[in-house]
Design a protein that fits this description.
heterodimer, A: 506 residues, two-stranded antiparallel sheet, 19 helices, B: 478 residues, 21 helices, 2 strands
């Protein structure tokens, strides 16, 4: 019984997806909608139960943050196993994933009018793949899920995108596949090294000890992995797929892309670059901090000049991930726990922002900020519910955005000095983004809701009950984490101190 | 009596195929009308009985027959089984060609079967003479088949194939003559024994190089790859599936035997092969981007796959050979799958252009899903068998020297380009179009095979262990 907890969690969406694909359902069947909603609700409840019964106290003892729950043979002859491990980081990501998918499935009714069957089955396959990434304990099994998510996302972008969808979808899949090639190379090197070193084939990354690896080989492998995960995060030279994909996709897919997909890259960096290649990671800290600083500044400047609502949010996603990178480049407990908290907070905020942009797109038929104005007059409830999300995006105190970014920058400020540049100066430069973020987010808010209403928007009605509920739930979470961040931060700091060998500066 | 004993222990499938060829020719003369169904049934039964007869062959120890010129062991038997299975699938999925040549279906099958006979004997040949004869049998039948349609493009394809093939065969013979000159024998085991005790000279490397070039023609890789694109464009879909599988598998099996027995004495040859392989992968993935004809696209894709097979073969060890066998097992299913899908579509709509696949998804969702599975499998994306095949090949390659790992990086980057090629087709499936064509239910046999192939492609990814074990055992016997 205990063995099947994780496989049920991960593969039940896949089974549901295959069930939906059967020819008995007609393509436009309304029952389909209902059954998928009920399924996603049950799935979310299942993860909540898992979360409640998860043993968080395990952080205290040494090296027992990982709980082995499932391990099955997949390719015995190559030593590759279909295993799942769950630690606190993955547990948080799992519940986040289930929650975000619940939101996007409930929002799908408004945006997707045709071909439910394919749409929902692809969304559910995607959910399986992403949950698999967060749980897999074997490198190649991880890669299996990592590449498996390409197929549903590619088709989702291709079929339900707006104007320029073909180019966007191709760009997305090629960039991501390019990244996964580097991950594959890195994994192959680790796998081969482990084989030469120990004499048996094993790809379970919790059991592989690479501390005796040649220094140069370590650098190469680290760089391969960093490029591979950097494409997903995204790190600036590889970022150009993201604004396109996020803005062209249909709203639920945009939510999934920004709230969950980017986190898989961050998860990879934490699991492999920071945990597995720990000592190389410490040597690369100055480089990562510099990259993060460039990420933040570049994306801030880009976000200010955008006119498309979704592109603004997409660039704000790059900024938030840059803040995550600068936080982990601090290499202290404050930074790491703040960085992981930033992942959660950004998922909630960007989901909220995309919901707002999606509602505007449905109601007004445009995403161009210059063609919108004064909608607050006709949609007062919507405006009221949007305020917490907007404030969190500008990191105003009492929202989760404030807590996470404050911790991230504080951690970065306390980072060990290095011989190349002044760390504090870099952090201060990166902090300019805080001012810039208020510029583009307030432009976003102002452009939509304030000033005079245009003639053509006078017949618009306020949002419906689903959208209200979604925004209320998100706002409640954002405010809850803003006021009581301690519940999750204590666990996270303890976890990161043990896993990444940090000094406790909390 | 020894003659019969040899047949009983090692040559049952060849005997059955040979009898079928003669039967086909005789029936073509005797039976004049409505021969299609009869021809198909007779040939399917013959291939199935040849497959069953593989069980009765001697596995251990290696069985040398006809004055040591042929060998039979588990490795050859596995490859024979793979060739017969793929031939069976090719016959069952064939749609148009037989209906076009309704009156000539016995001749058509006679030519096809003789090609299979050549492939079977090539796999088990143990000296250069039997290998050369087998290569020529296989080649001749392929030249015939590519010219089967009698239109302009088909003639061009056949002539080009014949001329390139003639050059390649003569190069092969040239290399063999040098080897004979150096060692005084054409038997692999004898040559192997001679070179175990003596050093390698330049002449040996040159002659091996020529032999290799002759075989690379068959597998469809650089430097003799020009024919493959035109032949695919000129031939029918069924024949394309035949040409893309049977000569390639036979040549891959034979090259790996040659490497184990002869070429492994010189690392230079290994490097040359790896170099050719990587150049093929890069060349084909770049060349395929601008193709608008689906057959030409599949032709380039087959060059990419030959490149990966050769790259793994060049790292000569048991592990890499088993990875090649696993790759070929998965490649059979996905390759026949895409050819079958395109053949059904072509028969309904009579087009080869990729842009005519527009909007296929809306009218034929399950058919398109199968096609998407095959295309992603060719690109090596999970959850399809192509992913595991590539993964296994890469784990084999990194066990080689550092130079192979460097070449692997280039191959992997070319793999990203090749994904851009496959998504060109998938992109069209989802495009909005008014004139979507509906594929009717009349291709029941083909559709059943298509969907079961798609299922197999995914099942291999879920339970790969049994297939990998089979390929490893076979590789130990080589």
């Amino acid at each position: 019984m205990q063995n099947s907890i994780l496989p049920i969690l991960i593969f039940s969406p896949l089974v549901m997806a295959l069930f939906i694909l059967n020819p008995l359902y007609k393509n436009e069947d309304k029952r389909l909608h209902k059954s998928v909603r009920i399924f996603s609700l049950l799935h979310f409840i299942y993860t909540v139960v898992l979360f409640v019964f998860f043993d968080f106290t395990n952080t205290g003892t040494e090296y027992e943050t990982v709980i082995k729950i499932f391990n099955s043979d997949w390719i015995n002859t190559l030593g590759i196993k279909a295993g799942f491990n769950v630690d606190i980081l993955s547990m948080i990501m799992i519940i986040l994933t289930a929650f975000i998918f619940l939101i996007s499935i409930f929002l799908s009714q408004e945006t997707v009018k045709k071909n439910y069957q394919l749409y929902f089955s692809l969304i559910l396959i995607l959910e399986s793949a992403i949950l698999g990434i967060f749980c897999a304990s074997d490198m190649f099994f991880f890669l299996f899920f990592w590449e498996m998510e390409l197929i549903p996302l590619y088709i989702l972008l291709l079929k339900w995108g707006s104007s320029n969808k073909q180019k966007t979808a191709a760009k997305f899949i090629l960039y991501t596949f390019f990244g996964s090639i580097f991950i594959l190379l890195g994994f192959l090197i680790v796998y081969l090294y482990n084989f030469i070193n120990t004499g048996y084939l094993c790809a379970d990354f919790c059991n592989i000890d690479i501390s005796a690896m040649n220094e140069k080989l370590k650098y190469i492998t680290f760089l391969f992995l960093f490029i591979g995960f950097g494409v997903k995060i995204p790190v600036v030279p590889f970022h150009s797929w993201l604004p396109d994909a996020h803005s062209q996709a249909v709203t639920p897919v945009s939510i999934i892309l920004s709230s969950v997909m980017l986190k898989t890259g961050a998860y990879g960096i934490l699991k492999f670059n920071a945990e597995m290649f720990n000592d190389t990671f410490i040597k690369f800290l100055p480089v990562i901090m510099l990259i993060a600083m460039i990420n933040i500044l570049y994306a801030s400047c880009c976000a200010i000049v955008q006119k498309d609502l979704k592109r603004i949010i997409a660039y704000s996603g790059i900024i938030h991930m840059g803040v995550f990178l600068i936080a982990i480049s601090s290499y202290n407990a404050t930074g790491f726990s703040g960085g992981i908290f930033q992942l959660v907070s950004h998922a909630l905020i960007s989901a909220g922002l995309f919901i707002i942009a999606g509602i505007i797109y449905i109601k007004c038929g445009t995403k161009n900020i210059l063609r919108l104005s004064g909608l607050g007059e006709k949609m007062p409830v919507f405006m009221f519910l949007a305020i917490p999300v907007i404030l969190a995006a500008v990191s105003v105190p009492l929202t989760s955005g404030f807590v996470s970014e404050f911790l991230c920058f504080m951690g970065a400020f306390w980072a060990e000095p290095n011989e190349f540049y002044n760390v504090k100066a870099i952090v201060i430069i990166a902090l300019i983004s805080m001012i810039l973020s208020s510029i583009y987010i307030l432009k976003f808010f102002h452009g939509i809701f304030f000033s005079k209403i245009l003639e053509k928007y006078k017949k618009i009605k306020d949002i419906n009950i689903y959208q209200k509920t979604m925004l209320i739930i998100l706002s409640l979470y954002i405010i809850y984490f803003g006021i009581f961040p301690g519940t999750i931060l204590d666990v996270l700091s303890e976890y990161s101190i043990i896993t990444f060998n940090l000094e406790g500066v909390f | 009596m020894e003659f019969l004993n040899d047949i009983k222990n090692a040559f049952l499938p060849e005997l059955i195929i040979f009898i079928t060829i003669i039967l086909n020719i005789l029936l073509a003369v005797i039976d004049g009308k409505n021969t299609l169904i009869k021809a198909k049934i007779i040939n399917v039964l013959a291939v199935i009985s040849a497959l069953i007869s593989l069980i009765f062959l001697q596995i251990e120890p290696n069985y040398y027959s006809y004055n040591n010129s042929f060998v039979s062991n588990l490795y050859t038997i596995l490859f024979k089984a793979l060739i017969l299975v793929s031939f069976l699938l090719v016959i069952l999925t064939s749609v148009k060609i037989i209906r076009e040549k309704r009156k000539k279906s016995f001749e058509y099958f006679a030519v096809m079967q003789s090609g299979v006979l050549g492939a079977l004997t090539l796999i088990s040949s143990n000296d250069f003479l039997s290998a050369f004869v087998s290569i020529e049998i296989l080649g001749l039948s392929c030249y015939f088949l590519s010219g089967f349609r009698k239109n302009h493009k088909s003639k061009e394809a056949s002539l080009k194939y014949l001329l390139t093939g003639a050059v390649a065969s003569s190069l092969f013979l040239f290399g063999v003559s040098y080897i004979y000159g150096i060692s005084g024998s054409i038997n692999f085991s004898v040559i192997n024994d001679i070179y175990l005790n003596s050093s390698i000279n330049l002449l040996f490397i040159v002659s091996s190089f020529f032999i290799l070039i002759g075989l690379l023609f068959k597998i469809g890789s650089i430097p003799f790859n020009n024919w493959i694109i035109d032949v695919y464009e000129g031939s029918n879909y069924t024949i394309c599936a035949y040409i893309s599988l049977i000569p390639k598998m036979a040549a891959a099996a034979f090259i790996s035997r040659l490497f184990v027995f002869i070429f492994n004495f010189s690392p230079v040859i290994q490097l040359i092969l790896a170099f050719f392989a990587v150049i093929s992968i890069i060349y084909a993935s770049i060349g395929a981007i601008h193709q608008t004809n689906i057959k030409r696209l599949y032709a380039y894709s087959s060059i990419i796959h030959s490149g990966f097979i050769l790259l793994a073969l060049s790292v000569v060890n048991v592990y890499s050979i088993s990875s090649v066998i696993f790759y070929i097992i998965t490649y059979i299913f996905m390759n026949i799958g895409i050819w079958c899908a395109s053949a059904i579509y072509n028969n309904e709509y009579n087009t080869d252009e990729i842009s005519d696949y527009k909007g296929l998804f809306y009218k034929n969702p399950y058919f398109s899903i199968a096609l998407i599975i095959f295309l992603f499998s060719l690109a090596g994306i999970p959850p399809t068998s192509g992913f595991l095949a590539k993964l296994y090949i890469f784990t084999a390659i990194i066990r080689g020297d550092l130079i192979f790992i460097l070449l692997l990086i280039f191959a992997l980057i070319a793999l990203v380009i090749s994904l851009a090629v496959y998504i060109k087709v998938i992109k069209e499936l989802f495009e909005k179009s008014q004139t979507g064509i509906y594929i009717k239910g009349k291709y029941l046999m083909q559709k059943i095979i298509l969907y079961s192939l798609a299922l197999i492609t995914i099942i291999i990814c879920i339970v790969p262990d049994i297939f990998i074990k089979i390929s490893q055992i076979a590789a130990y016997y080589i």
